[in-house]
Design a protein that fits this description.
This protein has about 260 residues and is of the alpha+beta class. The protein has 7 helices and 9 strands, in the order αββββββαββαβαααα. It folds into 2 domains: about 120 residues, ANL, C-terminal domain (GMP Synthetase, Chain A, domain 3, 2-Layer Sandwich), CATH 3.30.300.30; about 90 residues, Non-ribosomal Peptide Synthetase Peptidyl Carrier Protein, Chain A, CATH 1.10.1200.
């Protein structure tokens, strides 16, 4: 056991503590590793306490998310990081490998559902990037700089269907700007593409600015797909018109 850190008495006090399980005068060292007791006396390693990140006011243990991902039948290894994007906003991105030996290839939508069933919304990664292997440094540790930026296929996107109508097309452009994704389909889900409550609040404001209708933040969790939200916006726009004016417009267009 070392005597402490050189010229760092505060860190020495924090890491070198009294051994409560041994004779008087014994000491222990806090390694920073996190684990939990399992049946049979095994200890499951969950990561490190210096891997905590803070996103949207929540403290998140990345090792806990990695443990849940690794429990999926189609995942061999998993690493989760918080990528900082433009504007300083952080987004959780998961990187994983598959063995291919009797395991199906898991995609973003499947993995997102797997994590969402076990962890709260703020701990569910937005993107899922499949790698041939996890990049390591010369020292054998995770090389975070070598992890690639997530592409559009890293998100739980459905088979592409073009937005239909002016409202849906404009709404898709707004989503694309907020989510930083190039293409948004009419069946895509805002939250499965990486949206969260704070981003939804921004979307509510932009909807008011572009369409002059009000959508409550709570309703954003009801109309999560682009086509549903666009339809609701159109309905509220129509509801703002006087029925007599609508009838006059319809007659002028030859609609009975």
């Amino acid at each position: 056991m070392a005597r402490g850190y050189w010229n760092r008495p505060e860190l020495t006090t924090e890491r070198f503590v009294e051994d409560r399980f041994a004779a008087e005068g014994g000491r222990m060292y806090r390694t920073g590793d996190l684990g939990r007791w399992m049946e049979g006396g095994w200890i499951e390693f969950l990561g490190r306490n210096d891997e905590q990140v803070k996103i949207r006011g929540y403290r998140i243990e990345l090792g806990e998310i990695e443990s849940v991902l690794a429990a999926h039948a189609g995942v061999s290894e998993a690493v989760v990081i918080a990528r900082e994007e433009e504007g300083g906003e952080k987004r959780l991105v998961a990187y994983y490998t598959t063995s291919g030996e009797g395991k199906e290839i898991a995609g973003a939508e499947e993995l997102r559902e797997h994590v969402a069933a076990k962890l709260p919304e703020y701990m569910v990664p937005a993107g899922y990037v499949r790698l041939e292997k996890i990049p390591l440094s010369a020292a054998g540790k995770l090389d975070r700089q070598a992890l690639p930026q997530p592409g559009s296929n890293a998100y739980a996107m459905r088979e592409y269907e073009a937005p239909q109508g002016e409202v849906a097309e404009t709404l898709a452009e707004i989503w694309s700007e907020l989510l930083r994704l190039e293409r948004i389909g009419r069946q895509d889900d805002f939250f499965q593409l990486g949206g969260h409550s704070l981003m939804a609040a921004r979307l509510v404001l932009k909807i008011h600015q572009h369409f002059e209708v009000d959508i409550d933040l709570r309703e954003m969790f009801e109309f999560t797909r682009l086509c549903l939200l666009a339809s609701e916006i159109r309905n509220r726009q129509l509801a703002q018109f006087d029925p007599g004016e609508l009838a006059a417009v319809a007659r002028s267009m030859g609609i009975s």
